[in-house]
Specification:
It is built from 15 helices and 17 strands. By secondary structure, it is of the alpha/beta class. α4 links the parallel β4 and β5. α5 packs parallel to α9. The longest helix is centred in the middle third of the chain and has 33 residues. It starts with a strand and ends with a strand. The relative contact order is 0.07.
Length: 455
C-alpha cells in the first residue's frame, strides 16, 4: 500500500533516516525541519500521514499536532508522534493533543511500517465517507453542521474481553464512571455479545493463554455488524510480532503492559470520539441516499428511482413468466386547487393522497410520485384484473372521502390508467406509453374512472 508520508524532525539526520526507510517500502516521502513548515506542507499537499517529532525548537510537536487536529481541513490526517520521550504522561499528552499514536525512539522498523499502513487504511476509509459527506452538502441533501465538533454525550458502550480478574477490575474502575462496560471472559460469548450489542468499542487482551485474541479480532473485522466497531488491544511490552499481526488484521489502537490508567482513559476517549464521527458520516451518507431516491414532499419514491428499477422488475417478471402491472394516477383538475387555495393547500392534498395511495397497495408494490400531481404504482407478479381491482378501490376512496386540509374540505377525484407487461420483448418505455394512453382515455371520457390498456 503506497501513501504520502510527511516526516517532521529538526535533526536532518533523523529525517534522512526515516525518509530512506519509508522510500524503501515504496512510500512517497515529504519532509519538514520545523513545525511551521510542516503545517504549510500539510495545508498545501494533504499528506496521508504525518510522522512528527516532539522535541523541536520554537513550535514543539504537541503544538503542531493540536494545530493539525483543530483545522477542519486537516483534522482527518493521522499523526504519529516519534520521540525519545518514554513516560506514560508524555504519551497521554500526545494523545490528548490529537495524536493517533506515540512511538518511542529508537523506533522498531517493523512496528512503524505496520502502524503507518494501518493508519493509512483507516484514513482511506474515512476519506471515502468524507467525500460522500461533501457531495451531500454540495447537493443540499445534508446540512452544513460541523460534525467534527461533536463531543461525547452519554456513556460509551464498551465490550471488555479479559479473563484476568485483577486487570479487568482495574480497567473497569478506570473506565466505569463514564462508560457502560460489559465484561466477557469467554471468547465465544464475547463474539455473540459483539454481534448483538451495538458496542462503541471492543477492548481485547491479546496476552492471555486462555483464548486467541487475534482470532477474535479477525472475526470481528470479517463480520458485517462488527466491521466498523473500533478495537483496542492489550499486548505485552516488546511483543512486536503480535502487535504487527493485530495492526494487519485491522485493530484501531493498542496499549502495552503495564497499562497506565491515564493512557487507557485517553486512548478509549479518542476511539469513542472517532466512532461518533464515523457514525455521523455514515448516517449522513445513508440520509443522502434516501433523499436522493425519495420525493421530499410525499415521502414516496421519486421518478428517478422508479425509472432505474423498472427495467429490473420487468426482467424479473419475464424470467419468472409472471405479469407485472403498471398503474399511473392523476389527480383531476389539480391546477384549480392551487389556483383557488394556494400551493400550500395543494401540497397538503398531495401528501394526503400519497398516504392514501401507500395504504392501498401491497408492501411488494413500488409507489412513486411521478411528477406534479401524477403518481405511479408498479405491481410485480400481478395480472391486470387484480391491478384493476386495487385501482378501483383507490378511486372510490378518493371520490367518497373529502380531503380535510387547512381547515377546508375538498372533494376530489382521480383518473387512473393501467397497463401490463408483455413478456421479455417489452420495454419500460413501451409499458409507460401504454399506461399513459390509458390514462389519457380515462381523462378524455370524463375523468374519475379507471381505464385499462386494451392491448
Amino acid at each position: 500500500m503506497s501513501a504520502r508520508v510527511l516526516v517532521v524532525d529538526d535533526i536532518l539526520a533523523n529525517v534522512k533516516l526515516l525518509e530512506a526507510k519509508l522510500t524503501a517500502e515504496y512510500f512517497e516521502v515529504l519532509t519538514a525541519l520545523n513545525g511551521q513548515d510542516a503545517l504549510d506542507i500539510i495545508e498545501k499537499d494533504q499528506p496521508d500521514i504525518v510522522l512528527l517529532d516532539v522535541m523541536m525548537p520554537g513550535m514543539d510537536g504537541f503544538e503542531v499536532c493540536q494545530k493539525i487536529k483543530s483545522n477542519p481541513n486537516t483534522t482527518h490526517i493521522p499523526v504519529v508522534m516519534v520521540t525519545a520521550l518514554d513516560q506514560p504522561s508524555d504519551r497521554v499528552a500526545g494523545i490528548e493533543a490529537g495524536a493517533d499514536d506515540f512511538l518511542t525512539k529508537p523506533v522498531n522498523d517493523v512496528a512503524l511500517m505496520a502502524r503507518v499502513r494501518s493508519l493509512v487504511r483507516l484514513k482511506i476509509m474515512m476519506d471515502e465517507l468524507r467525500m460522500r459527506e461533501t457531495t451531500g452538502r454540495n447537493m443540499g441533501i445534508t446540512d452544513d453542521t460541523d460534525i467534527l465538533s461533536g463531543e461525547l454525550s452519554g456513556k460509551g458502550h464498551i465490550l471488555l474481553v479479559e479473563d484476568r480478574e485483577h486487570s479487568a477490575k482495574r480497567m473497569m474502575e478506570t473506565l466505569g464512571p463514564t462508560n457502560e462496560i460489559r465484561l466477557e471472559k469467554d471468547v465465544q460469548n464475547a463474539l455473540v455479545a459483539a454481534k448483538g450489542g451495538d458496542f462503541d468499542l471492543v477492548i481485547v487482551d491479546l496476552s492471555t493463554e486462555v483464548f486467541d485474541g487475534l482470532r477474535l479480532c479477525s472475526q470481528l473485522r470479517s463480520t458485517d455488524v462488527t466491521r466498523h466497531v473500533p478495537i483496542l488491544v492489550l499486548t505485552e511490552d516488546g511483543d512486536m510480532d503480535q502487535l504487527v499481526r493485530a495492526l494487519d488484521i485491522g485493530v484501531n489502537d493498542y496499549l502495552m503492559r503495564p497499562i497506565d490508567r491515564n493512557e487507557l482513559f485517553a486512548r478509549v476517549k479518542t476511539q469513542l470520539r472517532r466512532k461518533l464521527y464515523a457514525d455521523k458520516l455514515r448516517q449522513n451518507y445513508h440520509l443522502s441516499l434516501e433523499m436522493a431516491v425519495t420525493d421530499q414532499l410525499t415521502g414516496l419514491y421519486n421518478r428517478h428511482y422508479m425509472s432505474s428499477h423498472l427495467t429490473t422488475l420487468m426482467s424479473n417478471s419475464a424470467e419468472n413468466n409472471k405479469s407485472m402491472s403498471f398503474v399511473i394516477v392523476d389527480v383531476d383538475f389539480f391546477k384549480s386547487v392551487n389556483d383557488t387555495y394556494g400551493h400550500d393547500i395543494g401540497d397538503e392534498v398531495l401528501k394526503e393522497f400519497a398516504t392514501r395511495l401507500a395504504s392501498n397497495v401491497r408492501g411488494v408494490d413500488l409507489a412513486c410520485r411521478y411528477g406534479g400531481e401524477e403518481f405511479v404504482v408498479v405491481m410485480p407478479d400481478t395480472d391486470l384484473s387484480f391491478a384493476y381491482m386495487v385501482a378501483e378501490r383507490l378511486r372510490q376512496e378518493v371520490a367518497e372521502k373529502p380531503f380535510k386540509v387547512g381547515g377546508t374540505e375538498l372533494n376530489l377525484t382521480i383518473s387512473i390508467g393501467l397497463a401490463i407487461s408483455e413478456g421479455e420483448n417489452d420495454t419500460p418505455e413501451a409499458l409507460l406509453r401504454r399506461a399513459d394512453q390509458a390514462l389519457y382515455r380515462a381523462k378524455r371520457d370524463g375523468r374519475n374512472r379507471v381505464v385499462a390498456d386494451a392491448a
